[in-house]
Design brief:
By secondary structure, the protein is an alpha/beta fold. It has two domains: about 220 residues, no CATH class; about 35 residues. The chain has seven helices and seven strands. Strands 6-5-7 form a three-stranded parallel β-sheet, with helices on one face. The N terminus is likely disordered.
Length: about 280
């Protein structure tokens, strides 16, 4: 049984002085203060020592228990992530049964696809992942570097630490680890399989920059997503996808029109005809 939230449906951690009370719309609620959390200090994180026989940036860590995802907040927001974690927990249980000193391979993305919305990044990502030497994480766009590490996806009730971002590549890491044996190359101790992150928002979104301690007191960001990524994954391959802004805007408009039309039809009924000039 994995417990992510308490009985009231909120996530809590035993940290002092981390809540602030706000009033809005006639009601009061508690909002977790995240900006002083030490887990947000990416630039102060010790750099990983990646294994030289892996093309993808990977390393081994001790596997101390099977339920290593019990507090992972990506499981709260993604069914695919939950399913992946449950499958992995069975694998870790089996591994610990066979070896009390078991380890698990941990990996970060070898490449990142960034860019503007509606710039064919999904198409690029899917085509890369069709290659036999590439394996995807359970979520294409984790948006961790740009917004989710500070907890925006869970309404700033808590941060999502780096370790939980790395968890999202555990299944890919398991595949990377096993692939050489499956290919019938036991004598070749080099793992060439890679994984990636398709979070396009890393390219442009940095709305919370002024909250971070390293940027406080400045009128513009001293450090951006690029600095954080370079610190953690120095040799990351960045693929930038951009498009003619007019074409991108037209695609966004067409998609929005379809969504608005379908929503209004659902709310008003099919007998109400909408003037497409207003969509």
């Amino acid at each position: 049984m994995i417990h992510f939230l308490n009985a009231e449906g909120r996530y809590y951690a035993a940290l002092p002085n981390v809540t602030s009370e706000y009033a809005g719309n006639g009601s009061s609620f508690f909002w977790r203060e995240v900006w002083s959390h030490p887990g947000l200090d990416i630039l102060g994180t010790p750099q990983f020592k990646f294994l030289p026989n892996f093309k993808n940036p990977c390393w081994y860590e001790p596997l101390v228990e099977s339920n290593v995802y019990q507090n992972n907040k990506f499981a709260v927001v993604s069914m695919n992530a939950r399913r992946s974690m449950m499958e992995l927990m069975e694998t870790w249980t089996d591994r610990l049964t066979k070896d009390k000193n078991a380890k698990r391979l941990r990996c970060l993305p070898y490449f990142m696809i960034v860019g503007q919305p509606k710039c064919a990044s999904t198409d690029i990502y899917k085509k890369i992942m069709k290659h036999p030497d590439a394996v995807p994480p359970p979520i294409k766009e984790l948006h961790w570097w740009s917004r989710n590490r500070q907890g925006r996806r869970i309404n700033y009730t808590d941060i999502i630490p780096l370790t939980q971002y790395i968890d999202m590549f555990d299944k890919a890491a398991l595949y990377i680890e096993k692939r050489s044996e499956e290919m019938g190359e036991p004598d070749i101790d080099y793992h060439k399989i890679i994984t990636g992150d398709g979070s396009v928002s890393v390219f442009w979104e940095n709305d919370d920059w002024w909250h971070f301690p390293e940027n406080q007191g400045h009128t513009e960001p001293r450090y951006t997503n690029a600095d954080y990524i370079h610190h953690v994954i120095p040799n990351a391959k960045i693929i930038v996808s951009v498009r003619n802004p007019t074409d991108s805007l037209l695609v966004t408009h067409n998609i929005s029109s379809v969504i608005i039309s379908a929503t209004m039809t659902y709310l008003l009924g099919p007998e109400i005809q909408l003037d497409k000039a207003f969509l």
